[in-house]
């Protein structure tokens, strides 16, 4: 929470029980080369769920068997999304 210049990159998250990546009230967040995998029967497994981010970006992101790949329900500012395959 309340961080600036956050970089989340080159990671794989597996079997996340809930939201895998949930940055809150941060500035200049860049998420790159991230894979998020969840079991098919997992409830409410959002991949990336930014909340009130300023200057956030997602680049090259892959998710499988997620409830929502990218949940923007709580995002107020524009979010840049590049090269994100949606399965």
TrEMBL record:
InterPro entries recorded: GH28_Enzymes, Glyco_hydro_28, Pectin_lyas_fold, Pectin_lyase_fold/virulence
GO molecular function (one): polygalacturonase activity
GO biological process per UniProt: carbohydrate metabolic process
Record keywords, A-Z: Glycosidase, Hydrolase
Domain of life: Eukaryota
Family, as annotated: Belongs to the glycosyl hydrolase 28 family.
Name under which the protein is recorded: Polygalacturonase
Protein's organism: Iris pallida
């Amino acid at each position: 929470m309340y961080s600036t210049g956050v970089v989340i990159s080159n990671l794989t998250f597996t079997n996340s029980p809930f939201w895998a990546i949930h940055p809150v009230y941060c500035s200049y967040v860049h998420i790159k080369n991230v894979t998020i995998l969840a079991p098919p029967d997992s409830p409410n497994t959002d991949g990336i769920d930014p909340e009130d981010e300023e200057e956030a970006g997602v680049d090259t992101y892959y998710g499988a068997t997620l409830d929502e790949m990218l949940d923007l329900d709580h995002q107020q500012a524009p979010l840049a999304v590049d090269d994100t395959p949606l399965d």
